[in-house]
Structures are given as C-alpha cells and as structure tokens.
Amino acid sequence: MPFNAIPAENFLNRGYELDYLQGLSELKGNALGGNVFLEGPRGMGKTELLKQLYRVLFWEGRVVPFYYSFQTANLKGPYFAKDYLTRFVRQYLAFIKKEPAIADHAAEPLLRLAPVISSLGLYWLIDCIENFQEHVHRNDLYWQIVSAISVPVIAAQKGAKPVIVMLDDFDAAANLYESSLGDAHGLTSLFGESMQQRGCPHVITGAAGALEALFADHSLIVMTEKMRLGPLPEDLAGKLFRTHLANLKISTAAALPFLDTLRGNPLYIRNLAKTARKMQKTHLTDRDLIECYCLDVSEGETAFYWSSVLNRHFQNRPQREAMLKLFMHRAEGGKMADHRKLSLTSGLGESVGDVILDKMAASGILQDPDAVLRDFLLGRYLVEVEGRRPGEAREKIEAKYLSEAEGSCFELVIPMNENAELVVAKAVEQIGLNMNLDPDFLNRLQIALIEVCINAMEHSGSYEKKVFLKFITRPDKLEIIVENSGRPFSVDLQAEPPVEEKLRAGRKRGWGFKLVHAVMDSVKVERINDRTRVILVKNIQE
C-alpha cells in the first residue's frame, strides 16, 4: 500500500512539508525535533504525504520507512499486534533488499521469511519474533502489543539506521480492544515508550484535535509538534484538476468557477475527475462539472469515502439516522452551541443526542464541515431518513447549484406502457409553444423525443418500468434529459433509416438516432451506475 503513491510531479504544494519530514530523523537525533502530528480536514492529503515520504526514504536508503494504517487494521488486540509486527518485518526486509514486493502478502506467516532473515544476518530480528511468540503462547495481550511496537526501535538500534514510523489515522487506535469493543482503554499509551526514542521518530495522522484526546501523558504532547495541511491554493487546485483530466483524455472549458466548491481538497478533486471519466465525458463545461459533482457526492467515490468514515463511527442504521437528523437540525439552525437544545429540537432526547454528538466530533464531522460534506450528508438524509431514491437525492443537490441558471424546469415520469411516449410528445409541444419554437422544428423534436423514449422502453429491460424526463428551458437553450434504469445501449447499433423518407411518411415511431442527431445540436449518452441518461440540447436563436 505505501508504494501506490501518485506521481511526484502531481503532488503539488507540499514540498516544504515533505522536505521537513525527510530530515526528521536527523533533527530528532540532535534533539532539535521530535514526533510530528499531521493535522487537517479529511481529504487534504495527509495519507498521500506519508506515501510520498515513504517512497522517497525507501529508495534514498538512509532512513528506514515503516507505514501502518489504522483505518484498515483489525483493532482486536492480538490481531493488531501480530499484524503490526508482520508488516514491519516485511517492510524492513523489502527496504534492505530493495524489493518492494516483499512488503506485500502480509497475511503470510513470518516463518516463511526465516531463511531470508538468516541470510541477511538479522538474528536480532529473529529474537524479536521469538519473543513475540512467547507472549502469544502466554496469552499476554499487554506484552504482545508492547513487543510488537518496540521492534522498530530495536531495528533503529541494531540496524544502524534510523526508522521513521508512520501511523496513519492514529486516532482510530483509541478503539483497540481485547475481546470486545470498549474493554481495554488506554492501549494507545503503549506507544509512548517507542515515541520517546531518538532513533525512531513517529509521524502520525488523525482528525483535528485528536492528539490531546489520545495521549494522557502530557510529556508526549510536548514532544510532538503539529503540522497542519491546508487546502491547495486556487491556481494549484485548478492545475491539479486539469492534470487529472488530461491523464483521462478529457478536455475542459477555460473557466470552471464551480471548482471553487471543492475548496482545494485534493481528494475531492481527484474523485471528481474520475467521475467525469465514469460519465464518459470528453469535454467538461461548468455545468458538466456540476452534474459530475452531484453524482460523486451522492453515489460516487466521495460518497463511498464519507460513508466508510460514518460506518466506522456509527455502526448501525438507527445511530446513522440519529446523526443525520442532528446534523440537519444543526445546519438549519446555525452551529447551535447549546447541545441540549439541539438534542431536544431534533427529537432525540438529551442522553442519546450527547452520545451521537460525541461520535460526530470524533469522526471530524463537526469541525467546520465543507460544502462537499454538507451535500453528502444531505443526500444520505434524503435517502436514509426520508426514504427517497438515490436519483432523487442527486437531483435535489443538483438543483441547489443549477436553479439560478436553469430558468424554467419541468419534470415528467411516464410508465413503460404502450403509447406512453405520446404523452411526452404532447408535453414537449406545449413547452415548445411557450418558447415560440418554429412549428416545423417542434414537429421534428417530438419525433426525436419519441424515438428516445421508445428506445428506453423497448431495449432497457428496466426494473422500475418508468422513464424519467426533465425539460430545462432558457432563453437561449432547450435541454431535455431522459433517464431510465436497466441495460445500456449503443447509439451506433441503432437503425439509421433515411430521415426525409420517414418525414414524408408522417411516421412518429420506429426512428433511429440519426434523426435525433439531425434535430439536436448536442446528443450525449451517459451511463451512471445502472442507469442510462440521454441528454439532448438545442441552442435557440433569436
């Protein structure tokens, strides 16, 4: 995992932090520096900074890097201790032999590495493993953990090279337990001894404000300096986004003002670019950006990221629903510092509200939530509390950003029944009359839209048996969105009958997409999860 860092040239605006951490071992050895706590909002690149640091140190060869993520760790004490030791041994051997592949396959028994360890003369490492096994046989959890987290310190002493220990999402270590959650408090304090060693500086990450909560020993806090990662500047955020798009073969408009919504968050920027690729975009306008964003924050990778954070802190649905209610009440009434009032107004009661608020603080949700997090939580609230479809939640978020520019918006849902498409034709006729569209063009538009609806009904195999339409009218443009669930289709495979012949015959059924392209200025077909979306655009001239 430490080796899957992004290319160094795409790692922007973190040069000072990376240089400082590279020299941390020397600073600590001379008593000029200590451990470092990387602090900042989620998605700001704390994990990526550790990966970049790991890669530099690994190939440079002067300092041994060790990376451990608590986010993906099994926090049951015995499993954690074994996993921690195994990953260090493998990463240490990979560093010595300059073979990154050795660091993989952490699930394989350490005994298989004994010949490699012996051939390198690392007998002290064999002693460490045997010492750990003795504590396992005695079923002594305390000494299992102590012996495991002491091995990097011993490596620094015996191996003549300092070791930098990188503990990612270290605040999750507060949940270490013996046999059931909550039965062994204070196990994070066991890291204190190794953190005090000069030859073994620690770089740890966590949510803002987590350091004081984790360490009861004030001396550990004193010897740990904070390094805060903030957002990328506006120009670099734009440069990073365009770099991602270029790698995905997507062009973009010169100005993308909506990108400011992401507030320079590298994780959001990367996820948005990947979503544009999933939506089969080849050129991005600011409006396209809004569509991609709304999908990403409701059903895409950003939604998955925040869902994993919430699931770690709110293990069951009732807890998540209570959290969503509290957050929405908090958002509607300002920050509302009076937690008792907040709990009562949300209908949860003071005792339940206090528990949920504590969990929200631990998850980082309460620390100045950005627009992306607020939109994600709004989407989850609409789905989990109000019971709406994911598509409805996405449209609700989208409406926030498009309402000012859309002019008028009409929505229509038709069943997949015979002649239901004629209802659509009648609706677009009335919209066209309101817009004073040319009668000949309006007739062609009706036929084209009928073709799109027939295709959705006859070829999709939709489980919903419905077609969803949205008509967006502006003074200079008409946009029609047709969406349905079910199988995807290829425009290239549709029949291409002669357009003029069909027009003369007066037929309004069975047309291919050639007419659709002939009538509209833009025709896009997108695949969003299990849904197909056809976007038709016609520019209106005076």
Mean pLDDT: 82
- Can you tell me the residue ranges where pLDDT is under 50 for at least 5 consecutive residues? 492-496, 505-510
- Order of strands in the sheet with the most strands? 2-3-4-1-5
End-to-end separation in angstroms reads 58 Å
Q: What is the global morphology?
A: elongated
Major sheet summary line: 5 strands, parallel
Tally of helical runs: 23
Number of strands: 12
Radius of gyration in whole Å, from Cα? 29 Å
Fraction of residues in H or I helices? 40-55%
- How does the helix and strand content classify structurally? alpha/beta
Report strand %: 5-15%
Question: What's the structural blueprint in terms of helices and strands?
Answer:
Elements: H1 15-22, H2 24-29, E1 35-39, H3 46-60, E2 64-69, H4 77-97, H5 114-119, H6 123-137, H7 141-158, E3 163-168, H8 192-195, E4 202-206, H9 210-214, H10 218-222, E5 224-228, H11 234-247, E6 251-252, H12 266-278, E7 283-284, H13 286-299, H14 301-313, H15 317-332, H16 339-345, H17 350-363, H18 371-385, H19 390-406, E8 408-415, H20 421-434, H21 439-459, E9 466-474, E10 477-485, H22 499-505, H23 513-519, E11 522-528, E12 531-539
Parallel strand pairs: 1-4, 1-5, 2-3, 3-4, 6-7
Antiparallel strand pairs: 8-9, 9-10, 10-12, 11-12
Helix pairs in contact: 1-3, 4-6, 4-7, 6-7, 11-12, 12-13, 13-14, 13-19, 14-17, 15-17, 15-18, 16-17, 18-19, 20-21, 21-23
